[in-house]
Design a protein that fits this description.
With about 425 residues, the chain is an alpha/beta fold. About 15% of the residues lie in helices and about 30% in strands. The chain is built from 8 helices and 35 strands. Strands 5-4-1-8-13-10-14 form a 7-stranded mixed beta sheet. The two termini are about 45 Å apart.
């Protein structure tokens, strides 16, 4: 086996429960983004753009779509004889099968995979962030400082700091203290969940902490290394980075792509974002349609009006329909004379004629007011909405619905329809 200087372990097993019905049947890293991509495309593209050609992708929750999307890694040039991309699911062992329980436990269960490459360094990544980062520059920083652990960190507003793992550093960025989601943060330098470890140090820590329940990097491994006197450093990152873990941040990140000068540019030649694409036909835009400030995927047919929206591949938008401030994912069909305001509609949905979405005043969600907020209409994949119904704000729909599910033709703000067999 050829020895690798650094390999990446990409944690992609998360359910993403704060994305509600969008992740009922699909892992969060496999959720569509930007009309063409899936969330996991961003860390995978960062790897190949940074010269990291060996990536273990750890999957667990609803892995089917993620596995088929990654395949053997061809879109990212990760189909290699030595290294490349490997999907690592939990598996049966002599002592029985064991689900991954915590981020560090997932890595511990794959010690054999990492040992097979005998790397000097291991890069730990999350599969659910939107950003571009050159991991090679971070590795150079790690080496220059003779660090055993380097944590990528970025400044956040002080009032948001309690949501993150916070690092307190000296003037050379050496970490003096690490606090996981502190109630009263003493710094605004937040961990991004991106780590470079010297492998022998990480290996020792994983074995030492293996009996911790839900063994986690922020709660267990990093404090262990710190207490053992290992040199920890913070690599400060000041570019665009978005954790798209809530419906609001997911919607926001998509909407930022259609700004006149987008904060996050998908079209830079020197740092391409790669994805698996099916060969589909070109778009069709009718003579009567209007499109302003939107991303339109391949193979779409637009007969209506689209403003400030992100439209995935193979979507059909009927005549007389107006879509505003919305995300419509691939292969969804919207009938004629609809109005769609501030909605997220997942893949392969069918919306009848004359449907009005995003109407009326906001009301708190009766399903989960922490998830279904931000004034959004959220519709899970493979859902059916019958013609001529009205849907309010902070609503959730999942499954094949009928007119009888909408009292007097209305799903009021804050209400929901989740069909049997669908999760929340």
């Amino acid at each position: 086996m050829i020895r690798k200087e650094m390999i990446a372990m990409l944690l992609a097993g998360g359910q993403g429960s704060r994305l509600g019905v969008l992740t009922s049947n699909v892992a969060k890293p496999a959720v569509a983004f930007g009309g063409k991509y899936r969330i996991i495309d961003f860390p995978l593209s960062n790897c190949i753009n940074s010269g990291v050609d060996t990536v273990g992708v750890l999957t667990q929750y609803q892995p089917l779509r993620l596995n088929s999307h990654i395949g053997i890694g061809i879109p990212w040039d990760l189909d290699r004889n030595h290294g490349g991309v490997t999907v690592l699911s939990p598996y049966e062992k002599i002592a029985g099968s064991e689900w991954y329980s915590g981020t560090a436990n997932a890595i511990y269960q794959n010690l054999g995979y990492i040992d097979g490459y005998n790397p000097e360094y291991v890069l730990i990544l999350s599969g659910d962030h939107i950003y571009k980062m050159d991991y090679e520059v971070m590795l150079d920083f790690h080496k220059e400082n003779h660090a055993d652990v380097t944590i990528a960190a970025m400044p956040v507003p002080m009032e948001e700091a309690s949501r993150f793992g916070i690092v307190i550093t000296d003037e050379n960025k050496k970490i003096l203290e690490f606090e996981e989601k502190p109630e009263h943060p003493r710094s605004n330098l937040a961990s991004m969940g991106i780590y470079i470890f010297t492998w022998k140090v990480l290996r020792e820590a994983l074995i030492a902490m293996k009996d911790q329940s839900n063994c986690d990097f922020g709660k267990h491994i990093i404090p262990y290394c710190h207490e053992a006197g290992r040199p920890l450093y913070a690599y400060e990152y000041n570019g665009y980075w978005k954790d798209v873990g809530t419906l609001g941040s997911y919607w926001e990140a998509n909407m930022e792509l259609v700004d006149l000068i987008p904060e996050f540019n998908l079209y830079e030649e020197y740092w391409k974002i790669y994805t698996r694409t099916d060969n589909v036909e070109p778009q069709y835009v009718s003579a009567d349609s209007i499109i302003e400030k939107s991303i339109i995927g391949e193979g779409t047919e637009i007969y209506g009006e689209v403003y400030n929206s992100v439209i995935g591949a193979g979507v059909v938008i009927g005549a007389g329909t107006v879509v505003r401030d919305s995300i419509i994912m691939r292969d969804t069909k919207i009938g004629g004379n609809c109005t769609v305001n501030k909605a997220i509609i997942a893949e392969e949905c069918e919306i009848g004629d004359g449907v009005e979405m995003g109407i009326g005043e906001e009301a708190a969600s009766k399903l989960n007011d922490q998830v279904y907020a931000f004034g959004l209409v959220t519709i899970g994949e493979n859902s059916f909405i019958p013609s001529n119904v009205k849907i309010g704000k902070n609503t959730a729909i999942s499954g094949v619905t009928a007119n009888g599910d909408y009292p007097e033709g209305l799903l009021a703000s804050g209400e929901y329809i989740i069909k049997a067999g669908e999760s929340k």
